[in-house]
């Protein structure tokens, strides 16, 4: 027996639960992420090594989650959701205020952000709900779903953390949508949303209103909230078709792009790689989503289908909202670019999602 | 769950998934369209925006042109010095910053006061000097602690410096930081872009008049900056073009000799080359050190200069107007010859006074000078001769002739701040006064005009010019300070054109008479003592200008308050047969003209014609005994003519020589040497 066979034998239990296409696409995205984080931070506080550690940890978690069978995940759904909800209430009561937002709970040695848990707990709970209540009368069914959806979303939006609220809300909403919510209702809700929008406007915080206003006209506040959008669109536009080349983007290297290694990292990438790089990146996300949807399509229980579909569409939401805001067609909300933005929390959440997708794919035949 | 339900649900789910796929595809397509819009359609615009972000054009200030005297002696140059500068917009709390800095480098109270002053006038992001001329040690100490002081930096800057200090400062002028008024001037000249990086500008004198010759053309550096505005690297550089150098007509050593000759006395001296109008020396005493102004004068230095009773900032040579006294007589005589009122031989018998109406104009010599012809009238400065001449000639003709010599009008010298003086005439009086009884010209006034008193009031520049015209047989050139301008790069020299501004039709034989008489002054007359032993022949004339009416009182040189004493004047040229230098000098409150003024002239001539360095300030030669019973009044009014408020701002109040009641009606005049 050769040594290599021995290694494969040892890795076998891990690899057998891994979906290789998903892993490859993710690895490519993470590579882009590492390179771009390096480019954005080499001249100042170097972030690439710690991002590499974040990625290693998150991938490790992904392997672990991938081994958990979906039935077990189903059992975890409610406890996790309720746990998250309790924490959100605690945040509301005892949270730490940073920059005017109450988003964190202090555990003494560290701080946690409970809304992050909800990004996974919401689709889990919602999928569980529709799995078990699929045949109820649609009115009671959707009323329950609405409660599950709105309570945590509202708590998060109130922190305020509009970006996370959108991600949590959309994750839940995708489950409802995939479960077959009537188009009439969707149409009605959309119409109602449009009608209510002017009133809802008044419930937005000043800074949130400002972000939407500056989206319409960034020059109205060029040194304040418009500055981000102005500088990131300049970066994307000046990148042209083939880009300025790796590590030679002037907007990024000369510090004109704010938050350039986190939420606005796409501007750094786009400036360096141009339109061609942007299209390649969008196509990579497209492959990721395609693979996720395929897993969802092949899944053999309602829970698995809904969960896989919602998580996949969650990836889409991350990518679309982030690139949309950086390129100036969506308001600025705190949503990172998946697998590329610097930051451990987002990676952990994303890789948990990946692990769930893999678990669903690999445990399909077991049933 | 039935199989049917399951299949039905699966189908519905597939439908939803397809819908979602299509929506997501559309969303991604919109993103790509957006990227296409930014990166292809609008690429040019954003490219420009990115370049604008990254590039800043930093002006590079050119070296200011140097100033040399006629022999190439450096009079104004640029020296590099370290300054400690604060950008108020970046420095946070200014008081704390200064307090902190004072522990690192020496910052005196006057530095603070000057800084506060500049701060009030400055823009937020302008760099304001706190301390100039840091020592190497102070620079090192600051460098070690600079992280504590955002918005503070040490810069090596070029400063104007005047190696000769106080010498010639009234001609050179001084520099100062650009203020709002200067900005207007820069704008008018269309130089705004060229001055973007310039902090200092010529405020007075040649520095001001030739500002745009000496400034040069600013260069530019294209600098890559980061979002914080810090320069990262220089991408390209358009070098500045140094300003042009001025080559003056001034002889710096002669200037020094003349200034030293004054010692501590106040006064003015203008020396001109009669052949071309070049000003060899332009002295106003006391003088000041223009180096004090270079980077914003400290308020206590300013106070000292501005409140000094001796008015050092005042340019007496071109702005101070004085009655010419007896130095007027050679011109009177020349005019009389020219218009045919007198021949050289005509003589009068001088009883020592001249009765006009019911008033007696007295000569300074009791009993008179006896028989006086033109020669003796000048040599001994006989008043009666000129009382009679003026009365006979009449004010109109007299005034016309003096006007042709340039008296009472600006010479057009190439620095600002020239006063016009007063050439009295009935027309002038009518303009000058408001009430009809004041406007009327009295014949008695003409009489005192004849001896250089009365309303007569001229600058030393005008008097020197008139002397030069006389010395040059009637031809006068515009007095000027700049001989040529040379290009610092190419070395190309541009001569300033000679401007013939005066052409008085004089007969050579008439000029010869006056020349002889003025030589006689220094040989056997009032200037004898001052010119004893001179190895050249100098022509001259003494004069005394009365400052104040001692109504009925007795004048005694020693007993009068200093500022009320007479001014001593002297005009001269030499060598008499082929004049190389003509000058006019006044020593304020010095008494008789032969004291002080003539000895100063002697030292100036000795140096200029023979290279003899004087051993010290010119001596006060005891003059002729002071006559008694003086009650002569003259009228000087600088508020007259084209005195303008603009210049007054740059010029301190006129000196103590102008304290005449200007509205008193004409009084008769008596006597003076």
Give the helix tally of chain B.
24
Distance between the termini of chain A: 34 Å
Shape of chain A: globular
Strand residues, percent of chain A: under 5%
Labels describing this entry:
heterodimer, A: 367 residues, mainly alpha, three-stranded antiparallel beta sheet, globular, B: 673 residues, alpha+beta, Penicillin-binding protein 2a (Domain 2), Beta-lactamase, seven-stranded mixed beta sheet, five-stranded antiparallel beta sheet, 24 helices, 23 strands, 19% strand, elongated
Question: How would you portray this structure in words?
Answer:
The complex is a heterodimer of chains A (about 375) and B (about 675). Chain A contains 14 helices and three strands. Chain A has about 375 residues and is mainly alpha-helical. Chain A has one domain. A three-stranded antiparallel beta sheet of chain A has the order 1-2-3, with helices on one face. In chain A, a hairpin with a 2-residue loop joins β1 (about 95-100) and β2. By secondary structure, chain B is α+β, with helices and mostly antiparallel strands. In chain B, α11 (about 250-260) packs antiparallel against α23 (about 595-610) and α14 (about 330-340) packs antiparallel against α22. Chain B is elongated and about 150 Å long. Helix content of chain B is about 35%, strand content about 20%. Chain B has two domains: about 80-160, Penicillin-binding protein 2a (Domain 2) (Alpha-Beta Complex); about 265-660, Beta-lactamase (3-Layer(aba) Sandwich). The chains are: A mainly alpha (about 375), B alpha+beta (about 675). At the A-B interface, α7, α10, α12 and α13 of A face α1 and α2 of B.
């Amino acid at each position: 027996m050769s040594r290599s066979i021995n290694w494969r034998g040892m890795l076998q239990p891990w690899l057998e639960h891994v979906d290789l296409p998903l892993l490859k696409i993710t690895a490519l995205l993470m590579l882009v992420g590492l390179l771009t984080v390096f480019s954005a931070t080499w001249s100042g506080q170097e972030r690439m090594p710690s991002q590499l550690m974040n990625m290693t940890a998150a991938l490790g978690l992904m392997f672990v989650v991938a081994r958990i069978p979906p039935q077990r995940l189903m059992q975890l759904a409610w406890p996790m959701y309720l746990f998250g909800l309790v924490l959100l209430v605690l945040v509301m009561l005892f949270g730490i205020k940073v920059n005017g937002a109450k988003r964190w709970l202090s555990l003494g040695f560290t701080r946690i952000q409970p809304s992050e848990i909800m990004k996974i707990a919401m689709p889990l709970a919602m999928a569980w709900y529709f799995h078990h209540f699929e045949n109820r009368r649609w009115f009671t069914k959707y009323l329950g779903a609405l409660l599950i959806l709105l309570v945590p979303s509202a708590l998060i939006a109130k922190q305020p953390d509009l970006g996370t609220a959108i991600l949590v809300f959309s994750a839940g909403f995708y489950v409802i949508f995939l479960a077959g919510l009537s188009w009439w209702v969707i149409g009605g809700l959309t119409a109602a949303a449009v009608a209510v929008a002017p009133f809802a406007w008044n419930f937005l915080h000043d800074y949130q209103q400002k972000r939407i206003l500056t989206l319409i006209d960034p020059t109205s506040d060029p040194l304040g909230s418009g500055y981000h959008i102005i500088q990131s669109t300049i970066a994307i536009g000046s990148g042209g078709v083939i880009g300025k080349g790796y590590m030679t983007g002037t907007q990024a290297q000369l510090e004109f792009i704010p938050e350039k290694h986190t939420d606005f990292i796409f501007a750094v990438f786009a400036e360096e790689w141009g339109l061609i790089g942007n299209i390649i990146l969008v196509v990579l996300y497209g492959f990721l989503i395609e693979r996720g949807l395929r897993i969802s399509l092949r899944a053999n229980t309602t829970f698995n289908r809904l969960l896989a579909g919602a998580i996949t569409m969650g990836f889409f939401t991350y990518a679309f909202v982030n690139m949309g805001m950086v390129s100036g067609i969506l308001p600025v909300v705190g949503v990172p670019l998946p697998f590329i933005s610097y930051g451990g929390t987002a990676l952990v959440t994303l890789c948990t999602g990946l692990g769930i997708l893999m678990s669903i794919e690999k445990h399909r035949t077991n049933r | 769950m039935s199989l049917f339900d399951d299949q039905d649900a699966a189908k519905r789910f597939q439908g939803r998934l397809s819908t979602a796929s299509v929506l997501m595809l559309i969303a991604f397509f919109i993103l790509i369209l957006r990227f296409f819009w930014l990166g292809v359609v609008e690429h040019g615009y954003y490219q420009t925006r990115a370049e604008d972000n990254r590039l800043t054009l930093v002006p590079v200030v050119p070296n200011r042109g140097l100033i040399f005297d006629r022999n190439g002696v450096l009079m104004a140059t640029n020296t590099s010095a370290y300054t400690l500068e604060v950008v108020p917009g970046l420095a946070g709390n200014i008081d704390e910053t200064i307090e902190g800095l004072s522990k690192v480098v020496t910052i005196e109270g006057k530095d603070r006061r000057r800084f506060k002053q500049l701060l009030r006038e400055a823009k937020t992001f302008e760099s304001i000097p706190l301390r100039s001329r840091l020592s190497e040690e102070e620079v090192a100490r600051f460098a070690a602690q600079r992280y504590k002081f955002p918005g503070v930096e040490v810069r090596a800057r070029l400063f104007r410096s005047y190696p000769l200090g106080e010498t010639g400062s009234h001609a050179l002028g001084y520099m100062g930081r650009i203020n709002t008024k200067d900005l207007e001037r820069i704008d008018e000249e269309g130089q705004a872009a060229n001055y973007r990086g310039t902090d200092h500008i010529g405020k007075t004198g040649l520095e001001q008049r030739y500002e745009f010759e000496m400034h040069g053309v600013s260069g530019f550096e294209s600098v890559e900056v980061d979002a914080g505005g810090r320069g990262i690297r220089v991408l390209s550089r358009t070098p500045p073009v140094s300003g042009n150098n001025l080559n003056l007509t001034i002889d710096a050593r002669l200037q020094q000799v003349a200034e030293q000759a004054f010692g501590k006395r106040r006064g003015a001296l203008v020396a001109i080359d009669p052949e071309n109008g070049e000003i060899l020396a332009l002295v106003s005493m006391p003088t000041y050190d223009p180096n004090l102004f270079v980077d914003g004068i400290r308020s206590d230095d300013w106070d000292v200069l501005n409140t000094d009773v001796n008015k050092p900032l005042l340019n007496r040579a071109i702005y101070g107007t004085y009655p010419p006294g007896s130095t007027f007589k050679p011109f009177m005589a020349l005019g009389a010859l020219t218009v045919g009122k007198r021949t050289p031989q005509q003589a009068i018998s001088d009883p020592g006074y001249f009765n006009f109406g019911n008033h007696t104009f007295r000569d300074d010599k009791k009993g008179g000078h006896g028989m006086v012809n033109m020669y003796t009238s000048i040599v001994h400065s006989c008043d009666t001769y000129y009382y009679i001449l003026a009365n006979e000639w009449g004010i109109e003709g007299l005034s016309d002739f003096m006007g042709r010599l340039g008296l009472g009008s600006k010479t057009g010298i190439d620095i600002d701040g020239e006063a016009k003086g007063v050439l009295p005439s009935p027309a002038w009086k009518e303009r000058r006064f408001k009430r009809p009884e004041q406007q009327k010209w009295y014949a008695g006034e003409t009489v005192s005009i004849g001896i250089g008193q009365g309303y007569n009031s001229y600058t030393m520049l005008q008097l020197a010019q008139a002397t030069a015209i006389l010395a040059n047989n009637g031809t006068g050139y515009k007095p000027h300070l700049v001989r040529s301008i040379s290009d610092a790069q190419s070395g190309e020299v541009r001569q300033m054109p000679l401007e013939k501004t005066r052409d008085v039709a004089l007969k050579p034989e008439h000029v010869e008479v006056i020349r002889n008489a003025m030589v006689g002054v220094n040989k056997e007359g009032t200037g004898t003592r001052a010119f004893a032993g001179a190895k050249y022949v100098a022509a001259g004339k003494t004069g005394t200008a009365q400052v104040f009416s001692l109504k009925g009182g007795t004048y005694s040189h020693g007993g009068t308050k200093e500022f009320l004493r007479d001014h001593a004047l002297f005009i001269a040229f030499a060598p008499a047969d082929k004049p190389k230098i003509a000058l006019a000098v006044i020593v304020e409150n010095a008494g008789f003209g032969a004291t002080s003024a003539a000895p100063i002239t002697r030292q100036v001539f000795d140096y200029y014609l023979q290279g003899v360095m004087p051993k010290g300030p010119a001596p006060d030669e005891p003059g002729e005994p002071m006559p008694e019973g003086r009650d002569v009044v003259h009228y000087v009014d600088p508020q007259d003519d084209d005195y303008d408020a603009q210049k007054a701002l740059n010029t301190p109040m006129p000196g103590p020589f102008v304290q005449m009641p200007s509205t008193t009606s004409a009084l008769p005049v008596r006597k003076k040497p």
